[in-house]
């Protein structure tokens, strides 16, 4: 693990290249970095901005706090400025940077002062650096300023030096990922001189500043910090360059740091120490907290602090995890071994030495069992660090109403007195009941041992039902009651026999032990029940999701499962076809509509990070929004509104939510992939069909083309040489004839192919009109014209045949194809018969139904010819019969297959009948091939007719008689 | 056929972008006693129509620069020259639109030369009749004879009794014998404007006429259906 690497790790190089690519699309961040206010950061930034403006770039000032400095104001005058946003905070109007306006304006470069600034309520983000992240992500370059005391990892050091804790902090990652950091340095004496001249603060504030933050000692120390931090950064840059160029040199060993966290305030300091250690070692680091039965008893405030500590670690770049088990040290160490951790950072034990000697401490356990893992013990910070009033440098001093301080998610501690809780009432009742029962036993003459047992039973009961406090109260009260009621002298606390003192001590000890053990069992049971609940929820979710397909169904199932665990107000937003995020129909989404104005869901989708309630981004939202992140990006957004008063920031809740969100995302992705795979399969199938079509068609195309080009070539050749073989006029004519007929065959093939394409592409939408069968038959026979010569074509159409509701052009095509088919496959001179009849849809054939309405052809009565149809759905059946060789039984089905050609068939394309079937199916009808009695084949068409033709147009006014 | 050709050979304007089709038309038409002018674009076609004043125009509906329908409309703004449109199969709607816009007839590619010559003859004859201001007192095709002045219809010499409306329909078709008429054109003429949606009424009356005039109504000789377009009374 600690082998020195001698060549660059390709994965790491790749990661670095990727990061650079990512950067190319992002805007560049330049930080003007200084030791304290007044060194001239804003001034330099504005000067640089002016230079860029003069160089022709689109530069805009997003937000600059001039602090009444004349030099700054003079510089500001020449630069275009973005309007600030008026935010009302607790009734006081405040000016804030308007990130939405900046994004809309899209300058090439924007100047935003004070990167560590905390935004007022109602802004998009809690912190200004988050605004800046959005700007960078949008490809806008940003210039900004930062004081060293605002860096998160130096926060406690600065507090030690200056005695002032700075509240507005900036995650180190932002500073480290900045593309450029320019140190603005001013020796402390010069700065103090400037301060006295009133160039930094307004005169009335100078004295206060000089006495507080701006002491010379402070300034020297801060300057050193700033210089060192900048040097570190330069060092990191050099390393990065070296790595990229693979120049030989010492490569850092792989170290890993694990920071142990608790719910105490001091843990924040442990986190920062861990972070500094990791940075110094250039190591990956992680932060872990262990959930034990003890942590379940934490107050709301304790939980909030734990969550806060974890978030701090996350912000500082750690991977965070929540372990769960009985024994903290064991869990930490097993995690450390599993993750190849080399350094553990832990807070110093807070317990007094004697107590540690008795019950031990996690820190001691870690050191004892750590083996080859180094353990660093960090002294806890003063618990009241964070409550100290902070002089907050230039931001704090200069802005009249202080910005809100509440860390998001941290509720004010709510300590309610538990004295009158139901547990204590139960304790009192238990003691009372035990006493009554014991008194009865005493009266009955039973021994004191039984009395004591009765009291212990009461203690066990209360412990099992109501927890530690009431159990302890019951123990004490039981001893007192025993003394009062049963130890002589009765009804006083006095004791006549000193032996009883021992009895009291043992009784108290046993009572406490019973209560402790019972409570512990109960807590373990509760913990395992909760764990079981979580596991159960996960299991159910994964089982339901894995057996579901279809995006909407998946979302629906996921919502039901989520609502089971988290309550009703859950929704999943998926981007629709128009890119807008919308909840699925039927999901409760009132809060989505409210939150939509903030664009929070869109932000989550684009950034792949959680936002909304309980987070640092748009914390004013009603709901928490989590990304549904899968391997191919964020697929959607999970929105959840916690029930009133419930925090979703508890680590185990968040983790469960994240795990469930991941499962949903994976299920959605799996579904999308399955669909994509299916589409690929369909495409492949289509491709296969297409190539078989091509193979078949190319043969059919080549044959006539060969004849045409061959025959015409021969004729041309003969014309040119005059010595050709084709001199005989009869031969010439024969050749011309074959050119002509092959051209017609080609034309027929192309027509069929086009029809086929229309049928198959689904573009075949019949334009139905009311048509007499007779007319379509007539136009089809006409179209074939002379080719029917020599054939007896008989047409039998009953007079009462209803009109068809069909597309005339398509139906004519069917008839032509069937007639051509008959001409091709039956011997010349054999008859062709066309017969039609109407059938009720059930299939019986009322051929001779008298006076069937809607019929045609009753001459002389135009008005009544088609009126008054009554039946709803009927089929018109049309038979095309021939007296040819017939179709073998096993081919009756296959004749309709694409490119199916009977062996006896000549010159057909194998498409005609397929087209017929396609057209009839588009009409809701069908076609079948039947053997015919007495030889030959019948093609039976069935076309459903529903409804009736409309009434005839009224007669026009009659012409005057001639 | 050459006997019919007047001394002054009729001039055909061919507006067609495909050179092979133009050249085949030129050869064939010249061989059958026509003079030919060619244009490969719609705009030049319109200019030629104004300069050369052709006796008949053949127009391809699929031109590269403007669609045939607008050529038809613009030509009809100032000229009554007979116009035959050429179209690919499956463009029934375009054909009907061109006919409604004033084209006299249509042919579907691929077409045969005799078909084209027959269409040109019919178009020229109708134009000549129109110029004479004489729609012809009688129309005769096969055994069917219409005496338009006397409102008499005879089939193989025997008088056929028709209702007023049937006669009106038949007479309209007979006046344009050989030419295709769209359903809309017939309905407008016979039933009056506002009857455009009544295609099935027209079909019912056509069927009645066939039953009175045709020996086999399912294989009509006189009253032909152009599926998807309209009707045509057979000429010659």
Structure description:
The complex is a heterodimer of chains A (962) and B (236). Chain A is an alpha/beta fold. The model of chain A is unreliable at 1-5, 246-253, 383-419 and 843-870 (pLDDT under 50). Chain A contains 28 helices and 24 strands. In chain A, 36% of the residues are buried. The longest helix of chain A has 71 residues, at 651-721. Helix content of chain B is 41%, strand content 22%. Chain B has helices at residues 19-31, 42-52, 68-76, 92-100, 113-132, 164-175, 183-190, 199-213; strands at residues 11-15, 35-39, 56-60, 83-88, 105-109, 138-141, 144-147, 152-155, 158-159, 180-182, 223-226, 230-233. Chain B is built from 8 helices and 12 strands. The longest helix of chain B is centred in the middle third of the chain and has 20 residues, at 113-132. In chain B, a hairpin with a 2-residue loop joins strand 8 and strand 9. With 236 residues, chain B is an alpha/beta fold. Classes of the chains: A alpha/beta (962), B alpha/beta (236). Chain A binds chain B through residues 743, 747, 751, 754, 758, 769-772, 774-779, 781-782, 793, 795, 797, 803, 808-809, 812, 834, 856-857, 859-860, 862, 865-866, 949-950, 952-953, 955-956, 958-959, 962, and chain B through 89-90, 92, 110, 149-151, 163-166, 168, 187, 190-192, 195, 198-201, 203-208, 210-212, 216-220, 224-228.
């Amino acid at each position: 693990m600690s082998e020195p690497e001698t060549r660059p790790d390709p994965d790491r190089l790749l990661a670095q290249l990727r990061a650079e690519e990512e950067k190319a699309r992002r805007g560049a961040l330049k930080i003007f970095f200084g030791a304290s206010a007044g060194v001239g950061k804003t001034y330099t930034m504005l000067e640089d901005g002016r230079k860029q403006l003069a160089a022709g770039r689109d530069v805009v000032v997003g937000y600059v706090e001039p602090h009444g400095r004349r030099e700054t104001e003079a510089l500001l005058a020449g630069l275009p400025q973005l309007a600030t946003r008026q935010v009302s905070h607790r009734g006081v109007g405040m000016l804030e940077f308007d990130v939405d306006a900046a994004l809309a304006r899209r300058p090439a470069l924007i100047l935003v002062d004070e990167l560590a600034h905390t935004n007022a309520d109602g802004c998009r983000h809690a912190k200004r650096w988050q605004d800046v992240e959005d700007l960078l992500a949008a490809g806008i370059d940003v210039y900004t300023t930062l004081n060293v005391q605002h860096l998160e990892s130096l926060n406690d050091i600065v507090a030690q030096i200056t005695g002032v804790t700075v509240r507005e902090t900036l995650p180190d990652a932002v500073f480290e990922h900045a593309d450029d950091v320019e140190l603005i340095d001013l020796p402390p004496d010069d700065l103090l001189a400037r301060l006295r001249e009133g160039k930094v603060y307004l005169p009335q504030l100078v004295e206060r500043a000089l006495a507080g933050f701006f002491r010379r000692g402070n300034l020297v120390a801060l300057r050193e910090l700033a210089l060192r931090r900048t040097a570190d950064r330069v060092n990191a840059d050099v390393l990065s360059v070296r790595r990229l160029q693979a120049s030989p040199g010492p490569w850092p060993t792989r170290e890993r740091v694990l920071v142990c966290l608790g719910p105490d305030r001091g843990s924040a300091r442990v986190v920062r120490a861990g972070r500094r250690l990791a940075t110094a070692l250039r190591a990956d680091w992680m932060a872990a907290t262990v959930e034990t039965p003890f942590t379940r008893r934490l107050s709301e405030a304790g939980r909030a602090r734990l969550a806060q500590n974890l978030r701090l670690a996350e912000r500082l770049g750690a991977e965070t995890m929540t372990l769960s088990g009985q024994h903290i040290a064991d869990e930490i160490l097993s995690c450390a071994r599993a993750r190849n951790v080399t350094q553990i950072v832990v807070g110093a034990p807070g317990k007094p030495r004697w107590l540690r000697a008795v019950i031990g401490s996690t820190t001691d356990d870690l050191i004892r069992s750590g083996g080859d893992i180094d353990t660093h013990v960090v002294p806890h910070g003063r618990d009241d660090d964070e409550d100290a009033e902070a002089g907050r440098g230039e931001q704090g001093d200069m802005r009249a109403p202080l910005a809100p301080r509440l860390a998001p998610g941290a509720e004010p501690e709510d300590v309610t007195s538990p004295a009158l809780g139901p547990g204590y009432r139960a304790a009192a009742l238990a003691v009372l009941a035990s006493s009554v029962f014991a008194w009865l036993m005493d009266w009955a003459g039973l021994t004191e041992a039984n009395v004591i047992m009765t009291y212990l039973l009461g203690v066990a009961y209360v412990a099992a039902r109501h927890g530690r406090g009431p159990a302890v109260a019951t123990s004490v009260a039981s001893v007192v009651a025993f003394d009062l009621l049963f130890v002589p002298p009765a009804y006083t606390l006095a004791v006549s026999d000193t032996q009883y003192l021992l009895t009291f001590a043992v009784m108290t000890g046993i009572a406490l032990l019973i209560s402790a053990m019972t409570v512990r069992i109960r807590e373990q049971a509760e913990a395992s029940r909760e764990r079981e609940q979580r596991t159960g929820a996960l299991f159910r979710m994964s089982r339901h999701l894995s057996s579901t397909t279809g995006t909407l169904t998946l979302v629906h199932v996921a919502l039901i499962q989520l609502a089971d665990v988290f309550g009703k107000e859950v929704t999943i937003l998926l981007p629709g076809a128009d890119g807008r995020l919308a909840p699925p129909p039927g999901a409760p989404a009132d809060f989505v509509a409210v939150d939509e104005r903030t664009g929070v869901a869109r932000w989550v989708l684009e950034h792949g990070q959680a936002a909304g309630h309980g987070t640092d981004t748009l914390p004013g939202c009603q709901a928490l929004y989590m990304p549904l992140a899968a391997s191919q990006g964020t697929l959607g957004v999970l929105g959840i509104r916690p029930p009133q008063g419930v925090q979703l920031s508890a680590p185990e809740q968040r983790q469960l939510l994240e795990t469930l969100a991941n499962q949903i995302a994976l299920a959605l992705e799996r579904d999308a992939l399955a669909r994509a795979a299916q589409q690929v399969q369909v495409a492949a199938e289509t491709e296969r069909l297409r190539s078989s079509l091509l193979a078949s068609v190319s043969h059919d195309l080549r044959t006539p083309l060969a004849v045409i080009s061959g025959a015409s070539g021969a004729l041309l050749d003969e014309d040119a040489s005059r010595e050709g073989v084709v001199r005989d006029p009869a031969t010439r004519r024969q050749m011309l004839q074959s050119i002509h007929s092959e051209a017609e065959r080609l034309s027929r093939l192309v027509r069929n192919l086009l029809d086929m394409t229309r049928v198959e592409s689904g573009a075949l939408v019949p334009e139905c009109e009311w048509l007499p069968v007779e007319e379509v038959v007539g136009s089809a026979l006409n179209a074939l014209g002379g080719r029917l010569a020599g054939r007896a074509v008989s047409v039998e159409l009953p007079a009462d045949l209803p009109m068809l509701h069909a597309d005339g052009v398509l139906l004519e095509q069917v008839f032509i194809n069937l007639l051509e088919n008959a001409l091709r496959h039956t011997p010349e001179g054999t008859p062709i018969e066309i017969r039609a009849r109407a059938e009720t849809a059930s299939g019986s054939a009322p051929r001779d139904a008298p006076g069937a309405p809607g019929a045609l052809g009753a001459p002389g009565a135009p008005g009544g010819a088609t009126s008054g149809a009554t039946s709803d759905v009927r089929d018109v059946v049309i038979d095309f019969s021939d007296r040819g060789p017939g179709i073998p039984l096993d081919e009756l089905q296959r004749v309709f297959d694409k490119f199916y050609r009977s062996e006896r068939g000549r010159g057909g394309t194998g498409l005609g009948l397929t087209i017929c079937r396609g057209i009839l199916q588009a009409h809701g009808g069908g076609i079948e091939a039947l053997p015919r009695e007495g030889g030959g084949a019948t093609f039976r068409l069935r076309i459903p007719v529903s409804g009736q033709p409309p009434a005839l147009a009224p007669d026009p006014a009659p012409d005057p008689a001639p | 056929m050459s006997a019919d050709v007047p001394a002054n050979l009729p001039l055909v304007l061919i507006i067609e972008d495909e050179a092979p089709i133009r050249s085949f038309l030129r050869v064939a038409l010249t061989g059958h006693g026509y003079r030919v002018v060619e244009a490969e674009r719609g705009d030049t076609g319109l200019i030629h129509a104004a300069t050369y004043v052709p006796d008949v125009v053949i127009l391809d509906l699929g031109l590269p620069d403007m669609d045939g329908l607008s050529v038809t409309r613009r030509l009809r703004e100032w000229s009554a020259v007979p116009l035959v449109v050429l179209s690919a199969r499956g463009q029934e709607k375009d054909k009907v639109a061109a006919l409604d816009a004033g084209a006299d007839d249509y042919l579907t590619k691929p077409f045969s030369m005799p078909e084209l010559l027959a269409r040109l003859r019919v178009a020229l004859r109708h134009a000549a009749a129109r110029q004479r201001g004489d729609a012809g007192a009688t129309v005769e095709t096969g055994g069917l004879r219409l005496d338009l002045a006397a409102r008499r219809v005879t089939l193989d010499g025997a008088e056929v009794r028709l209702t007023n409306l049937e006669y009106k329909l038949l007479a309209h078709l007979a006046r344009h014998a050989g030419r295709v008429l769209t359903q809309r054109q017939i309905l407008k003429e016979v039933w009056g404007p506002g009857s455009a949606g009544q295609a099935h009424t027209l079909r019912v009356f056509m069927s009645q006429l066939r039953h009175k005039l045709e020996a086999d109504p399912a294989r009509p000789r006189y009253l032909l259906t152009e599926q998807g377009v309209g009707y045509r009374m057979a000429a010659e």
